[in-house]
Specification:
- This protein is an all-alpha fold and 197 residues long.
- Helix content is 74%, strand content 0%.
- The chain has one domain.
- The longest helix is centred in the last third of the chain and has 29 residues.
- It is globular and about 50 Å long.
- The N and C termini lie far apart (33 Å).
């Protein structure tokens, strides 16, 4: 197993184990700084990195930007809905399972899957995260908080893009196995987060 893969697997396991599953509950939401730090909760962090890796691995090179862009647009629109009081039952459970969904997407990233299906799944998962972000944000602090979590979300996605490009460049011959290992680990992490709710 390569050092890159070992480090990535360790990162996923450590993120899931060391961060509370209740990533959207009980934290300060009135400032830009709170928004910048919030996406480091395990569920959001793992999902964002996975979006970047999947986008580079499953989409044509000139369209890899569409995965992160789709997530960000769905995140913003659903955050506005969440701030208006719209929510779903078992939202935290669905968010935890979105990590497992992204793991599955990585497992099959090298297989021919319709681009619209992949982007649609990203939009659905982003909407879950956005509803939770919006629901917890008071009207007086929404703009700063939203700007913060969008900036960090974009940065995490870029880190995933970088990891995906590294896999493509240095592990091209084994990219399917590497993505499968990362996806499997991500899937287990999502189930673990779900079990902690």
């Amino acid at each position: 197993m390569t050092k890159l893969l070992k480090n990535a697997l360790f990162f996923i396991a450590a993120s899931a184990a060391s961060t509370g599953a209740f990533a959207h509950i009980g934290h300060e939401t009135h400032s830009l700084m709170a928004g910048l730090t919030h996406p480091f909760g395990a569920d959001h962090l793992l999902a964002m990195v996975a979006v970047g890796i999947w986008s580079v691995s499953a989409l044509p090179a000139h369209k890899a930007w569409q995965g992160p862009a789709t997530f960000l647009m769905a995140l913003v629109s659903s955050a506005v809905m969440g701030a208006m009081g719209i929510t779903l039952p078992f939202l935290e459970h669905a968010i935890a399972l979105s990590v497992t969904l992204f793991g599955l997407m990585l497992v099959i990233a090298t297989q021919p899957v319709p681009k619209a299906l992949g982007l649609g799944l990203i939009a659905v998962a982003a909407s879950l995260h956005g509803l939770a972000h919006g629901a917890e944000t008071p009207a007086t602090g929404f703009a700063g908080y939203a700007a913060g979590f969008l900036l960090t979300t974009a940065a995490l996605q870029l880190s995933g893009v970088g990891l995906g490009l590294s896999i493509r460049r240095w592990l091209a011959a084994r990219s399917g196995a590497v993505l499968g290992s990362l996806g499997g680990t991500l899937g287990v992490a999502g189930i673990y987060l779900f079990s902690q709710l």
